[in-house]
Amino acid sequence: MDDGTRKKKPRAARPRNGDPGVAPTRAALHEAALAYLARGAASADSVAKTLQRRIGNWARRAVRAGRDAEAIAQDAAAARELIAPIVERLGEVGLVNDAAFAANRAKRMATSGRSRRAITAHLAQKGVAATTVREAVGHDVGAELAAAIAFARKRRLGPFAREEAEPLDRDARRVAERKALGTMARAGFDFGVCERVLRMDRDDADERLRDRREF
């Protein structure tokens, strides 16, 4: 009896050594790029690498299927030549924009408590040009301080540290301060910013975060 619940039929497993067909065409690569971008904004380099992986996967399947290695290499090379024009076209229509991607990603990461150094490294890893990264990250002292406060809150450091049942003695307090300072420094924050945050009281830290969000 049909209870209104539709069950999906199990998808047949693709033979491991099945022939993958022709190399990815421009249309296929373009669709793959659109599907990747549908999951979220990405840099031009990330889109290109995604298409390169798709071609590489096709080539490996073709090798397992026993096709001629030289023909595979030629077809894969021809497919890779299509990547740059596809990414360029996506940029022309606004679907790929490294400047906007970098600015939005930098802002989101700073708000979540990532340092300027960490953001710079992340964007560089995504293949964003150094000049674009510098413009996106900037040198806003207030933004870096707010990011450090957000990091301290997330890690419960400084003004956000849990209160101990018994007050720490001087030596234990110094050990805790050095540990907190090291944690923040390893996250990429400058020593001066770390010290400034760790010396704040809770009300001041909360107020600065509120002011930054309103800004």
Distance between the termini: 60 Å
What fraction of the residues are assigned to beta strands by DSSP?
Answer: under 5%
Structural class: mainly alpha
**Rg to the nearest angstrom?**
25 Å
Q: What assembly state would you assign to the polypeptide chains in this entry?
A: single chain
**Strands, count:** 0
Any idea how many domains?
A: 2
Q: Spans with pLDDT under 50 lasting ≥5 residues?
A: 1-7
Main beta sheet strand tally, sense and closure = none
What does this structure look like?
By secondary structure, the protein is mainly alpha-helical. It folds into 2 domains: 26-92, no CATH class; 98-214, no CATH class. 66% of the residues lie in helices and 0% in strands. It is built from 11 helices and no strands. The protein has helices at residues 26-38, 44-64, 69-80, 83-92, 98-111, 116-125, 130-137, 141-155, 170-186, 191-198, 202-214. Helix 1 crosses helix 2 and helix 5 crosses helix 7. The longest helix has 21 residues, at 44-64. The chain starts with 25 loop residues before the first helix and ends with a helix. Mean pLDDT is 88; it is low at 1-7.
Keywords:
single chain, 215 residues, mainly alpha, 2 domains, disordered N terminus
Could you give the topology of this structure?
Layout: H1 26-38, H2 44-64, H3 69-80, H4 83-92, H5 98-111, H6 116-125, H7 130-137, H8 141-155, H9 170-186, H10 191-198, H11 202-214
